[in-house]
Design brief:
Elements (H helix, E strand, L loop, with lengths): L1 H35 L5 H15 L5 H10 L7 H20 L6 H17 L6 H33 L5 H41 L11 H17 L2 H10 L5 H21 L5 H15 L7 H29 L3 H22 L22 H8 L33
Keywords: Membrane, Phosphate transport, Transmembrane, Transmembrane helix, Transport
Membrane topology: Multi-pass membrane protein
Subcellular location: Membrane
């Protein structure tokens, strides 16, 4: 019983460590556009996001129930399996944070849980229908829906503000960005903090500490909310830089449209119990907002790297978790080996990150890559998108005057 209690405590601590990495990994989802457009100072932005993440953790338990009751068979799960799943998710989070890629913490957790469960109890212990309907389909649909919503919202925003005074309009949209960023932070706490609640509850069920089909206990909700809030406050500055500056250049109008669209999608999915990736939703909305402004260009090289990371998240986390579960199967010493490997790997990644420090002081000091040629999609959308609001340009400035000694230039007399 003592060894069992020890492994259960290790699982709970590791789950909260994952929740912490989830917080700083996904801070960019709520605050990248607000920081990049200058609507809020970086430290103030992450502080507000942290508080609202904590509040959001108490609003619902639907997503937590999807994980603890729906994705895998509770009867075939041991605490060691959940520990192995968390190892896969944490390492993937840290690796993608190191290279500044906004991948999905949610899918890392799902992949880890699936890989460890298959390694322990076989494919039959994974509920395929729940995986498809509540994880995979939302993973594809969320960025598309959020992107289209943000693109049309951006076009509508510029059309409505076409005749507005530029400075007043910009000030208003900056205020709107702050409000919409708060909404995304609230949605992030409602969706992502619940994933850790679900994992801890699943571990408690596996260990016999709570009855099957139980909702998360209050101490689980509170601890998960605090862990993700602390991680958010530290700020995942590397990913904030990529999301705010690497995908596209956003104006306040676009930032407001992107955040509002993403928050709507995330909150709707949380209400339905979908284990949605907030990263997918916000990234799709940012790209949609970039395409919604005439002249806006999405940097597809960065987007392609991000798409590849999205595709690798589930299988990579699953593979690491399956290997960790296999090692844990050798007994207590195997679990200890996996724990030491997790700590050592995390410390190594952190040490490597210190070679180039990115924090609140330099998060916006980003050398914009050479402008990519607009692709077919960008050109087609830009052709039917209204121009940004503001004073009309002097078109004559774009037509060069002929040289004074040009023999073909019309004389003053001939123009009368």
């Amino acid at each position: 019983m003592e060894s069992f209690s020890l492994i259960l405590a290790i699982v709970v601590v590791t789950a909260l460590a994952f929740d912490f990495t989830n917080g700083f990994h996904d801070t960019a989802n709520a605050m990248a556009t607000t920081i990049s457009t200058g609507a809020m100072r970086p430290k103030a932005a992450v502080a507000m996001s942290a508080v609202l993440n904590l509040v959001g953790a108490f609003l619902s338990v639907e997503v937590a129930n999807t994980i603890s009751k729906g994705l895998v068979d509770e009867a075939g799960i041991r605490p060691e399996v959940i520990f192995a799943a968390l190892v896969g998710a944490i390492l993937w989070n840290l690796l993608t944070w190191l290279v500044g890629l906004p991948s999905s913490s949610s899918h890392a957790l799902m992949g880890g849980l699936i890989g460890a469960t298959v390694a322990s109890a076989g494919f039959g212990a994974v509920h395929g229908d729940v995986l498809v309907t509540k994880v995979l389909i939302p993973a594809i649909a969320a960025p598309l829906v959020a992107g289209l919503a943000a693109m049309f919202a951006t076009r509508l925003t510029y059309r409505m503000g076409r005749n507005a005074e530029a400075k007043a309009s910009e000030k208003g949209y900056r205020a709107g960005q702050i409000a919409s960023a708060g909404l995304v932070s609230l949605a992030h706490g409602t969706n992502d903090a619940q994933k850790t609640m679900g994992i801890i509850t699943l571990a408690l069920v596996a260990g016999g500490a709570v009855a099957p089909d139980s909702d998360p206990p209050m101490w689980v909700i509170l601890s998960a909310g605090i862990a993700i809030a602390l991680g958010t406050y530290l700020g995942g500055w590397r990913i904030i830089r990529t999301m705010g500056k690497g995908l596209t250049d956003l104006q306040p109008q676009q930032g407001f449209a992107a955040q509002t669209s993403a928050a709507t999608v995330i909150l709707a999915s949380s209400h339905l119990g979908f284990s949605l990736s907030t990263t997918h939703s916000v990234s799709g909305a940012v790209m949609g907002a970039g395409l919604g402004r005439k002249g806006g260009v999405v940097r597809w090289s960065t987007a392609t790297r991000m798409f590849v990371a999205w595709g690798l998240t589930l299988p990579a986390a699953a593979l690491v978790a399956a290997i960790a579960e296999w090692v844990c199967g050798f007994g207590s010493w195997g679990t200890a080996v996996v724990a030491v490997f997790l700590v050592a790997s995390s410390a190594a990644i952190w040490k490597i990150s210190r070679r180039e420090v990115v924090d609140h002081t330099n998060v916006n000091d980003h050398d914009t890559p050479a402008e990519e040629p607009a692709g077919v999609v960008t050109q087609a959308i830009a052709a039917v998108t209204p121009p940004p609001a503001g004073p009309s340009e002097d078109l004559s400035a774009t037509i060069p005057a002929p040289p004074a000694n040009d023999p073909q230039a019309p004389s003053a007399a001939s123009t009368v």
